[in-house]
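> agent: user asked for a holo structure of the chain below bound to flavin-adenine dinucleotide. Plan: (1) validate sequence alphabet, (2) canonicalize SMILES, (3) run complex prediction with ligand conditioning, (4) return tokens. Step 1... ok. Step 2... ok. Step 3 dispatched.
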Amino acid sequence: MILTLIEHDQGVIDPQTFGMLTAVRGLAAEQGGALHAILIGADVAGLAAGLGDYGVTAVHLIEQESLDAYAPNAWAACVVEVMAAEKPTAVVGVGTERSNEVMAHVAARTDLPLAANCLAVQPEDDAWFVTRMRWGGTLHEEARLHGEPKLLTIAALGIEVETAPSGSAPEIIAVIPDLTDADLLVRVISRVEPERKGISLTDAPVVVSGGRGVGSAEGFAVLEQLAALLNGAVGCSRVVTNNGWRPHAEQIGQTGTRVAPELYIACGISGAIQHWVGCKGAKQILAINTDAEAPMVTKADYAVIGDLHEVIPALMAEIEKLKG
Ligand SMILES: Cc1cc2nc3c(=O)[nH]c(=O)nc-3n(C[C@H](O)[C@H](O)[C@H](O)COP(=O)(O)OP(=O)(O)OC[C@H]3O[C@@H](n4cnc5c(N)ncnc54)[C@H](O)[C@@H]3O)c2cc1C
């Protein structure tokens, strides 16, 4: 059996979790085992039923008031308890900051190795052969994962989510965890939400992103107009956030957000590797740049060589014409 950790926040399952379940379902089938999930929180039973659609046959449900807020040590303690009782062949989380944090605690508590952010997993007799993302995706490492059970997380951004052919409601197995005060010491106690205008970067079908070439904070007005026209969101490079032109919440890349929209429009962005890893999951990339040799231009699906302050208004005029 493969045990998966379901990441959720404020009543919503993290969408990347479904990508992870899609990837792991095949692995469980190859192993001839079942796919179980562990769901931890205060009022989360309602999230369990839908997991059947992704091939989960049983949910280990840990519900208690003290788990209302995310608490990585407590989550890890819960995972270790279920692991000890169910003896899975592998415990798998999604490669997000939270699940990686929980799984790192699980690894420390059990003294097992953890392979984080795996792109491919090939079970072999003893060790499992994994390819994993390092340094924000700038390096792919091939490694052999030892230990019993195997602990890993899946880099799921960009995995095409597929439902299971015959999904049905999973069995619910209630678990009462043995948590200490120390387990609950580190937890989320308050939230400061960033000011959000319009559609979020990770949900937007189109991201219009600007770099140093935009020239100023005011220069982003035209990118905002293009984004509004395409029902998209505005992103930017680190130079832009460093200059204080846009907030860090809009930064794309290794130290920002990773996006996988239908279309990524990179305006005045050179395409440094640290930026590229944040946008390479896009289905199509259009680069607008004065430099035909810029890495973003050479890697993009489409490119317009020119000054973005001339190209974007011309592009908008054409789109408006098409929209009538
Ligand atoms: C540890 C680490 C982490 C990092 N994390 C990130 C990250 O998460 N995200 C990120 O973006 N960067 C990150 N960086 C920085 C990254 O290395 C680059 O410095 C940065 O991405 C460059 O930003 P840029 O493309 O906007 O600027 P530049 O590299 O200066 O490129 C500007 C581009 O604009 C073009 N241009 C200029 N004027 C115009 C015009 N009028 N019209 C059209 N094109 C024009 C130029 O030809 C050029 O290609 C990181 C760096 C490090 C070391």
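> agent: step 4 complete. Summary for user: The pocket of flavin-adenine dinucleotide is lined by residues 211-213, 237-239, 251-256, 268-270, 272, 274-275, 278, 288-291, 294, 307-309 (CB under 6 Å). The mean pLDDT is 94.
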